[in-house]
Structure prediction request, 140 residues.
Amino acid sequence: MELAQPKPGWTTMLREHARLHAPAALGLGLALIGVLALLIQSLAQLAGGNAAPGLRLALLGGAAGFATTALGALPALVLRGLPQRVEDSLLGLAAGMMLAASAFSLLATSVPTSSIASTPASDARDRTASRSLSNSGNWR
Prediction:
């Protein structure tokens, strides 16, 4: 009777994957070092009091994004063996949210630059209409 081999831990699997894919692991390691260096530099500027005005808000926003992403990933650690139909539904929901977020962010930047939103002729027409209404006493 053979004894079952213990499953390797995640650190062992990570090392093996990094050994098999050395260029990718090196690139990711360098990127991680760069991001950590930028984070440490930003925190040092914040602690020293010579930070840019928006740095504090940027760090808070980044921390909030990290926290919510980590919180959203927690169910993946607990839920194992989801039925394929449920997994497909969750992936579809996530894809729909990302598509909506990108579409709405594009809309927000495109409306002010569109030809419908503002043209010199429509601006002049609006100013004329506004003046005539304010002169007649019907517009406040």
Observations:
- The mean pLDDT is 81.
- The radius of gyration is 27 Å.
- The chain is about 75% helix and 0% strand.
- The helical segments are 10-20, 22-48, 55-78, 84-110, 120-136.
